[in-house]
Specification:
Helices cover 76% and strands 0% of the residues. The protein is built from eight helices and no strands. It has helices at residues 2-26, 33-48, 52-57, 60-67, 72-75, 78-91, 100-118, 123-133. By secondary structure, it is mainly alpha-helical. It starts with a helix and ends with a helix.
Length: 135
């Protein structure tokens, strides 16, 4: 029972971290860009074992290997975070800093993994996937 409580606490903690990152991205301003991206990279690195740059340059098998270790609840937040980052990169005209086409492809890989794992249809995931395919 203690192990289950510990795991639930860890899942909730990571969910909180990812939710916080999503909200930070939505309020991101040009002057804060580098600081927030560094914070996102630090949190991604410690919780998912990759940074944005590593995600962009990784192939599908490496991404799947890293996200398979995580609870699906937390993995479901990643595409939203990545989509928010892509939107801000475009809004702040920082496309030269990050390959948003590759970042979009990686978010789609994660969405497809979620679809396969959960075996449930999600309109919001489908909409997000279409949005990312349009980038």
């Amino acid at each position: 029972m203690e192990r289950r409580d510990f795991l639930m606490k860890e899942i909730e903690n990571l969910t909180h971290i990812l939710s916080k990152l999503v909200s930070k991205v939505s309020g991101l301003k040009a002057v804060d860009f580098e600081v927030i991206i560094k914070e996102i990279n630090d949190d991604l690195s410690s919780n998912f074992e990759f940074t944005l740059d590593e995600l962009i340059s990784s192939d599908k098998s490496i991404i799947l290997e890293k996200i398979e270790k995580r609870d699906i609840i937390n993995v479901e937040l990643l595409p939203n975070l990545l989509s928010g980052i892509i939107d801000k990169i475009k809004e702040l005209k920082r496309e030269n800093d990050y390959n948003i086409d590759e970042l979009s492809k990686k978010a789609i890989i994660i969405i497809e993994y979620i679809d396969a794992e959960t075996k449930t249809f999600s309109m919001s995931r489908m909409d997000l996937k279409k949005k990312l395919q349009g980038k």
